[in-house]
Design a protein that fits this description.
Largest sheet: 6 strands, mixed
Helix content: 25-40%
């Protein structure tokens, strides 16, 4: 029996499979505690040092996986303040625990209250403050620091969010258009975690695209991994909706839906999750145009796509949206055709640039009025 236990203790552990070791995570629960305040000395009026705090700071090129590896016990504790002494009447403050997290992290407490939204570089959120040092107000006894459980919830920040049902060709497009290297296969759900790709242009301009795993009907109600995927759409500037021109059927138990019905279904899912997402500018990609019969099918559906409201009454009630997409562009593509991919890159940049101009560049009349106010001109009134 003893020999058996020795054998088991010497047995080597199997290494974790690579795809599990490097898995993308977008949520992490941690226990954080601020440092205890140092004690004071009543005889000399000495004050103990304040305990250190635990705070999160947003940084690029950091992942929640890095945080998980660094704090394997998922407990983060700042150091305590120094006690007052004859040599040092004012005790030193405890050292803070600085935790770097990726951009886009939201910090929630155990009650679900938002503590901080770290969507800018170097943004800081104090998760657990340190306890006060001992003084006359607390009988010279140092106070304990804050102690709570927090949840880090990552929402990807990208210029473009690529949305579509499984097997629509999103991964193929992302690989062709950017530097990402997602898994590609001819069956649904090959993408099981979000992928980020960077699109580079000759003039060094860059755009980031987030490929979200294929949604299914009911994603708004968290069916499948609905909320885990849909939350990443919230911080994108542009929605890139991708559908198969020939339609989609998830399985034999599901209804086969044509191209138009898929657009309505995606529209409905986003609307039910968060109707404000439909206020974002959208570009529609009709994929698999290289397949036989696709050009003829495009001619038949193009009028409906340009006016989605016209066929809304024919849409099945379970996927009928009340607030419709407003497409900036409708682009027929083949995710494997380089020329069409280049056209997508150009159109994405044009749409984002035009949106930036509308938001940040004032028109000529506004500029002239501003100059008049500053210079104090007394010319004729501008109309």
């Amino acid at each position: 029996m003893v020999q058996l236990f020795k054998f088991l203790l010497k047995a080597e552990k199997k290494p974790v499979r690579e795809h599990l070791r490097n898995a993308f995570i977008d949520g992490l629960r941690l226990t954080v505690r601020g440092g205890h305040g140092g004690n004071g000395i009543p005889k000399y009026g000495g004050i103990g040092g304040q305990g250190g705090c635990v705070y999160f700071v947003a940084k690029e090129d950091v992942s929640l996986r890095n945080v998980e590896k660094k704090y394997k016990t998922k407990r983060i504790v700042a150091s305590s303040g120094e006690d007052s002494s004859k040599v040092r009447i004012l005790g030193r403050r405890g050292l803070d625990e600085r935790v770097e997290v990726p951009l886009g992290v939201q910090v929630f407490d155990e009650k679900g209250q938002l503590l901080g939204d770290l969507n800018e570089d170097d943004a800081i959120c104090i998760a657990a403050g340190g306890g006060a040092g001992g003084c006359t107000g607390n009988n010279f006894l140092g106070a304990p620091g804050d102690h709570r459980t927090v949840r880090l919830d990552l929402k990807l920040i990208a210029d473009v969010g690529l949305v579509g049902f499984p097997n629509a060709g999103k991964s193929t497009l992302l690989k062709a258009i950017s530097n990402a290297n997602p898994k590609i296969a001819s069956y649904p759900f090959t993408t099981i975690r979000p992928q980020i790709g960077t699109v580079e242009y000759p003039d060094l301009r860059r755009l980031t695209i987030a490929d979200l795993p294929g949604l299914i009907e009911g994603a708004h109600a968290n069916i499948g991994m609905g909320h885990k995927f849909l939350k990443h759409v919230e911080r994108t500037r542009l929605l890139l909706i991708m559908v198969d021109i020939f339609g989609f059927r998830l399985s034999a138990q599901h209804t086969k839906r044509n191209c138009i019905e898929n657009i309505y279904a995606l529209n409905k899912e986003l609307e039910l999750y968060d109707a404000s997402l439909l206020d974002k500018p959208c570009v529609l990609l009709l994929n698999k145009m290289d397949v036989k019969g696709a050009p003829e099918l495009l001619k038949s559906v193009k009028p409906t796509i340009k006016n989605l409201e016209s066929s809304l009454k024919n849409c099945p009630e379970e996927i009928r949206p009340t607030k419709l997409f407003n497409f900036e562009r409708v682009i027929p593509i083949s995710a494997q055709n380089i020329k069409r991919i280049d056209a997508v890159k150009t159109e994405l940049r044009n749409v984002l640039d035009s949106l930036a101009e509308e938001k940040y560049v004032p028109d000529a009349l506004e500029v002239r009025m501003q100059l008049q106010r500053k210079v104090g001109e007394r010319g004729p009134k501008i109309t």
